[in-house]
Design a protein that fits this description.
Rossmann fold; globular; four-stranded parallel β-sheet; 19 strands; single chain; alpha/beta; four-stranded mixed β-sheet; Ubiquitin-like (UB roll)
């Protein structure tokens, strides 16, 4: 490949032909400011913050302009800096100046640029659009007035997730990013995955904050407040306090939650193990009885929302299992309540999840046990971090503590639920040994690991080859669904995770979830799995005890009632069932 030698701010650098000025500058430690640019997305060049001077008086965008041999580039000339300041002031003139009240305060890319250029207020006359916030759903808030039209959310919604809920509308000063016909999100087929909130550089899209709801429960002496922590949270929440992505901070999270006032701290990995028991036996039952195949996992709520809305004709392929979050909630209001001799109404169950769609899932009308909501409140990783900070807890230096029993005893199989391919691998570890009655020599199913969009593997079960597939990101799920729809699929079992990378890349994870960061979190998850004393779900002694004392057997009468559910077609209309259910809960709480 031909190389180009260029000069940037008097520093000479040689880079391959086709390299952008932005990337070339990084080679010599020059960081050109950007706003619409994102490392995992296509080049847009519409914010104009990255303008540089390539000839006296000539400005070009660094993100989209390729280097030319012999180029001389100035990134700090008066023309460049004046232009960049002008662009920022134009954005600020149409942007609310409420940084202290904004949920992205301190993590806003626009705010950082204004700090860099020493801009506290635009010199232009304010023209702030008076637009209503969209708070119509339990997962995501859209604050149109803060949108800077960078188009990042459109790309992730259309290209990565393939749902195309967000798009362009109008022209000139009326130009905006909105669902079709400017509908509210609850009136669309939005899957509430929250990937748009992860890539938004400002506070125009963010998770609905339920921290006050949880604080109020913790302050209520009449409630027994318990909490569960999802697998992916333990290798990501440390980032909110300065730790490197992938750093395992499980014991610190447990200790911090106790300091916040939770009565018991449990691990969602426990019900991940339970999910494998139910889902694995469901798969074997379908194979043996001629049930609908391929069977597809059902633990990702964004994925469930997607198939209900876009492929309702394929709902029979879904496993009937609730997600680990909802299984935990169901047990908390039944088995656990009975153990503590508490009325279910006295138990307030909180989930710490990497996912915004989990908020929607918890409020679905199907997710109740004997008249009580399985899960009362869901906090994202970001929300928990805010609670820990507001309680002045020194997170990185807090002494580690262990989970409470019985829902704190887990296996490596439960841990790897947090990554794409993890549910499949956990299921194969159990299904193989249940069918063959032989112990696996190697528990690591490498074919289903990694960030490739669709992964395949074939497993021999007593002479019967079983072909499986793993997909992450809904655009990849769509490819597999189209195969099934056309009768061309030869898979027996399929795992689908809504978000890129699986739960470690969920929409509620710390801001800055690039693919590079996801790789580090994935490594952290597998490192945890490696050192677990138990690595197979069917060997979890607490799960065995649960079946002996309460559930009876996988797919039994009690487990079917508590741990399984049904899914229904979803259309572009107001979800009246959800709204009615939500209102009933609100009245009960009052």
């Amino acid at each position: 490949m031909k190389n180009c030698t260029i000069t940037i701010d008097n520093k000479e650098v040689t880079v391959p032909e086709g390299t952008s000025i932005l990337e070339a500058a990084k080679k010599v430690s020059i960081n050109i400011p950007t706003l619409c640019n994102h490392p995992d997305q296509t080049v847009k060049a519409n914010c104009r913050i990255c303008l540089v001077e390539t000839k006296p008086g000539k400005l070009e965008t660094a993100c989209s302009t390729k280097v030319r041999d012999g180029m001389t580039i100035n990134t700090v000339s008066k023309l460049v800096r004046d232009t960049q300041r002008g662009v920022l002031e134009l954005i600020l003139a149409n942007h609310p100046q409420d940084c202290l009240k904004c949920i992205r305060n301190g993590k806003c890319e626009l705010q950082k640029l204004c700090e860099m250029f020493h801009i506290s207020k635009s010199n232009l006359e304010d023209e702030i659009d008076a637009l209503e916030k969209d708070e119509s759903n339990p997962s995501i808030v859209r604050d149109h007035s803060k949108c800077i039209k960078c188009n990042r959310c459109i790309e992730v919604c259309q290209e990565v997730q393939g749902v195309s809920i967000l798009s362009h509308a109008h022209r000139s000063t009326k130009y905006c990013i909105t669902p079709a016909f400017e509908k509210k999100l609850v009136n669309t087929l939005c899957v509430f995955c929250g990937q748009c909130t992860s890539v938004c550089p400002v506070g125009a899209l963010y998770e609905k904050d339920d921290t006050e709801k949880v604080w109020n429960a913790l302050y209520n002496d009449n409630l027994h407040v318990i909490v569960q922590i999802a697998p992916a949270v333990r290798v990501s929440i440390g980032e909110e306090f300065g730790a490197k992505p992938g750093t395992k901070v499980t014991g610190k999270v447990v200790a911090a939650l106790r300091r916040l006032g939770f009565d018991k701290v449990f691990d969602t990995d426990f019900t991940a193990d339970l999910t494998i028991m139910e889902e694995g036996h469901e798969l074997l039952d379908r194979i043996n009885r001629g049930g609908t195949l391929p069977m597809i996992t059902s633990c990702s709520p964004g994925w469930i929302n997607y198939i209900e809305g876009f492929y309702p004709q394929l709902l029979d392929h879904l496993s009937s299992c609730k997600s680990p979050q909802q299984m935990f909630g169901a047990l908390s209001k039944t088995y656990y309540a009975k153990k503590l001799d508490l009325d279910p109404s006295q138990i307030f169950t909180v989930s710490i999840m990497p996912c915004t769609a989990k908020k929607y899932e918890a409020e679905r009308k199907e997710m109740s046990s004997y008249g009580y909501r399985d899960v009362d409140a869901v906090l994202t990783t970001r929300e928990l971090a805010r609670m820990i900070k507001s309680a002045s807890i020194d997170f990185l230096n807090i002494e580690e503590e262990n989970f409470d029993e019985p829902f704190g005893i887990t296996t490596g199989a439960g841990v790897i639920f947090g990554v794409t391919g993890g549910v499949m691998e956990a299921a194969l570890r159990t299904v193989y040994e249940v069918v063959t009655e032989h112990e696996l020599e190697n528990l690591d199913f490498m074919d289903v690991r990694g960030l490739e969009g669709i992964k395949e593997a074939t497993v021999d079960l007593n002479g019967t080859p079983i072909k499986v597939a793993v997909a992450h990101g809904l655009s990849n799920a769509k490819k597999i669904l189209n195969q099934i729809n056309e009768g061309k699929s030869d898979y027996t079992f399929i795992e689908v995770m809504c978000c890129p990378g699986g739960c470690i890349g969920g929409g509620g994870q710390p801001i800055g979830s690039t693919m590079k960061v996801r790789e580090e979190r994935i490594k952290g998850i597998y490192d945890v799995d490696k050192v677990m004393p138990l690595r197979k779900s069917h060997e979890n002694p607490a799960v065995k005890e649960l079946y002996e004392e309460f559930l009876g057997q996988p797919l039994g009468k009690i487990s079917h009632k508590l741990l399984h559910t049904t899914y229904s077609p979803r259309s572009e209309k107001i979800d009246f069932d959800y709204l009615q259910w939500n209102n009933e809960i609100a009245l009960t709480e009052e």
